[in-house]
Design a protein that fits this description.
Length: about 350
């Protein structure tokens, strides 16, 4: 899996050398995310984007499908508040959510179906004795299962889509926020690069370097604090009996959400909460995996995000490699306006310029 990820990073480095400024960085992060969850064919399809204007190609199609899915999940729908028999006919679907979901499902089945058929053809050629590139990923594993244990195509497509739809956005959004902060704070960017030069040297950064990159950890944690990708949606809880939270009565049956964004910007918890200052985590090491509720971006308790370890380690690796290889500079004024959909995104996507560090100076 890491080999595929590093291969995709190498592809992006070639891309950076040919197109500057870098257009709409989130689609690049999504390519990396797809590779990281061990579905390399989709990473290659997504990376196959023909021009900076965003026209055409499998990459643009994947980007559009994921974007449409996020919008539909976060969109207000009156029918959500009524029993299914009342809105199943479409009478209460004033926003057209149902037809849009059906069209998206058809596109997902068609797109992933093509990927599966291509992979089956490769596997058949391998069985015929032809030497092919080694395929050690989730899709190949599912297609190679014994017939009595094998999932049908609809189940495979559903699992692939779920991994991409909910397994990529948080990391991609976290990286976009972190890179925006690096462009806005060149002093912090330089400090990370100095740490990378000292700890890693001239070789490419790997997973084994992550524990030794302390300031890089602090920058990612501070990004999670200032810009939590999931400020509300992962913490819905139902009160099973009347309870009190501070001075408030929460009646039984109430659905409540923990506002992590409010906690991470609370002046009684964080000094200068509106200031981006990664050094605060050098002063006090705070666990972000749910044991310290001052900063729990992945949730806590029994419903904590199961992919939190992989997601964060992947973010460390990508972030480190992007900063190790390039200096990131502004091309337009960067606005940190937030937009809450399924996750909290940058309202205006990041566009910046990448300059190879060997050429600096």
């Amino acid at each position: 899996m890491r080999t595929e990820l590093l291969t995709t990073i190498s592809f992006l480095f070639i891309f950076f050398s040919t197109i500057n400024p870098i257009p709409h960085l989130p689609w690049l992060y999504l390519s990396l995310a797809i590779a990281a969850i061990a579905i390399p064919p989709l990473a290659k399809r997504h990376a196959r984007r023909p021009n900076a204007g965003g026209g055409g190609g499998d990459g643009e199609m994947m980007n559009e499908m994921v974007k449409e899915g996020y919008e539909l999940v976060g969109k207000f729908n009156l029918g959500d508040y009524y029993p299914r028999h009342m809105w199943g006919s479409g009478l209460l679907d004033f926003h057209g959510v149902g037809p849009r979901c059906q069209r998206l499902a058809a596109r997902v089945r068609e797109h992933f179906g093509r990927v599966m058929e291509e992979r089956r053809k490769v596997m058949m050629r391998e069985e015929g004795g032809e030497v092919m590139e080694k395929r050690d990923d989730l899709l190949s594993y599912m297609l190679a299962m014994p017939e009595e244990e094998r999932f049908d195509d609809y189940d495979v497509i559903a699992m692939l889509w779920e991994m991409i739809f909910r397994g990529t956005d948080v990391v991609a959004i976290l990286l976009e926020w972190a890179m925006a902060r690096m462009v806005l704070h060149p002093d912090i960017q330089s400090k990370i690069q100095q740490e990378l030069d000292t700890v890693v040297g001239h070789r490419p950064m790997t997973d084994s370097d992550i524990p030794n990159l302390h300031f890089l950890h602090c920058v990612i944690k501070e990004t999670l604090r200032v810009h939590p990708p999931g400020p509300l949606l992962s913490w819905a809880r139902l009160a099973v009996h009347d309870t009190r939270v501070g001075k408030y009565l929460v009646p039984a049956g109430t659905t409540a959400m923990v506002n992590m964004w409010a906690i991470s910007h609370d002046e009684t918890i964080w000094g200068d909460p509106w200031v981006f200052r990664p050094e605060r985590f050098m002063e006090e090491d705070i666990n972000v995996f749910g044991s310290d509720l001052r900063l729990a971006p992945f949730g806590s308790g029994r419903r904590v995000c199961p992919g939190r370890m992989m997601g964060l380690s992947t973010a460390y690796l990508w972030f480190g490699r992007l900063l190790q290889e390039y200096k990131w500079l502004p091309t337009h004024p960067i606005k940190l306006t937030e937009c809450l959909r399924l996750s909290m995104e940058m309202k205006k996507p990041l566009v910046c310029r990448a300059v190879h560090r060997n050429k600096i100076g």
